[in-house]
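Exercise (ungraded).
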Amino acid sequence: MSSTWFRRSKKGILTTTEEKKETPDGLWHKCPQCKTTATVKELHDNLYICHKCNYHNRINAKEYFEILFDNNEYKLLFENIVPKDFLGFVDMKPYGARIEEAQKSTGLKDAMTVGHGKMNEKDFVVACMNFNFIGGSMGSVVGEKISRAIDYCIKNKLPLMVISKSGGARMMESAFSLMQMAKTAAKLTQLAKAQLPYISLMTDPTTGGVTASYAMLGDINIAEPNALICFAGPRVIKETIKKDLPAGFQRSEFLLEHGFLDFIADRKILKQKLTTVLEWYMIEPAGTH
Amino acid sequence: MQFLDFEKPLEDLYTQIHKLKEMSAKNKVDVSNSVRELDASIEKTRSQIYDNLTPWQRVQLSRHPDRPYTLYYIEKIFTNFTELYGDRQVKDDKAMVGGMALLNGEPVMVVGHQKGINTKMRQLRNFGMANPEGYRKALRLMKMAEKFNRPIITLIDTPGAFPGLEAEERGQAEAIARNLFEMVNMKVPVICVIIGEGASGGALGIGVGDRVAMMENTWYSVISPESCSSILWRSWNFKEKAAEQLKLTYKDMSSFGLVDDIIPEPVGGAHSDPEKTAETLKTYLTNAISALKMISPDDRITQRIEKLSKMGFYDETVTADNGTPAQIDAIT
């Protein structure tokens, strides 16, 4: 049965650890969903979508801005607003140390980045959350940046989009983080009064206090495919009801079916879709001034 | 009487009194002097305990099974209360109650979380955890109040919005978000009082107003101390520590400017003298409404937004002309 020409002469892996050839980091990417590999370059060119299963990899502000703004040109706004540990919150680590660590590892100031650029030649302000910064949690800086982005849009008569991607409120800021929900909702009433469009794009994951405030308050609410969008997370619900959750529960398609999204936009058509939508809002009706 | 763990010294004293009285009944001995002494020491012990409550003890008090709930206050404070049911969409949520009522003869709208007073009722009321229908019912009633120019009073007492399958299906997040947005814009005075537990979005969902007050033995936080412990410490054993770190008491919350007013409770907590507590609450509501009526609707809304806009702490670095960044402490 066994032919000798392919039989291993020695058993086991014989390469010593020192002799192992390292694959250079960041050259290949394995899809978390279907395990297909692609080069990082291919992934980038495909807008961080798996070319095989359409899995939308989690990306942050820098990548979204590159996808949305013409020629990757934009101005960052309110970068001078930075977090601080006002409460002196200490759990297993002091909050101050968590902030520093996150800033070091991400090169960001906090979980929100605001950019003003042109999308298909039209001015657009995008506030995008960074999940890599303490789980994209919403603290005072996130609330304040949204708040200022709204003021900026009102002053310059610009449309606003917030891209949500968040584990929810930032516990280490306690009630201050809770109040960001009310604060951002309050500011959005001003944007509404100014009759400027507010688009909420929910991406994987959008949860907790973020969903229960600005993420759900868009003039249109849209989502990327298969994003987890919820108030209470699946684990908490499972513990509460002690039952398994149906497949696809709390995913974008589920929310669309239940009437909470206007549509789902694949990242590849996002820019075009947004352009079409914004045109509807921003076009001056004929014959009026 | 139900005693909490930190009330053990009180319980002992009450037991002593009880034993003395029993003895005196049996042996026909006059114990009134001893009883008087014990009564005095009860008062003293109670003050000592209640002057030094830890944040976790306040959390315990806010959950005391004898603590008055929304419907109790409604009965004591208002007249002609007509409960109104349903969100006009899906169902009636028993964890959220509301209706039209008169406060000193003046029409108002009252809504609030409702907990159950016994095991059966607790289940019916879903432990005060509202579903989206509850928030939508509250909004429906508040909108009606706005239409007929009646002040709104909300009473908050919830361990959180219900984390259930149907709740998610019917848009718990959307229901809460919508309420925040609409409450900011209410043309009538809105007064919110935390009468028990103020947990997270479930509390805030009826908690945006011109005046937000906390009763003395309540808490208001982004998360319950238990859940916070389980997430940040990965264990349920750090709830006392979490309660401290979360700065969830009336003292902290008012010093941060996150709540406007404090409503005192009798020594021993609201449940030790519910009638008196209701009276204090009534006085507060009466005064708050008459003060708010002096302000125009537009100004009230503007002030609401201004108040909320100031909430938050962060540093704002300013790059001066010479290129050196200066630090200024931002508003808190």
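Further reading is listed at the end of the chapter. For now, observe: Chain B touches chain A through 59 residues (CB under 8 Å). Residues 60-309 of chain B form a domain with the 2-enoyl-CoA Hydratase; Chain A, domain 1 fold (CATH 3.90.226.10).
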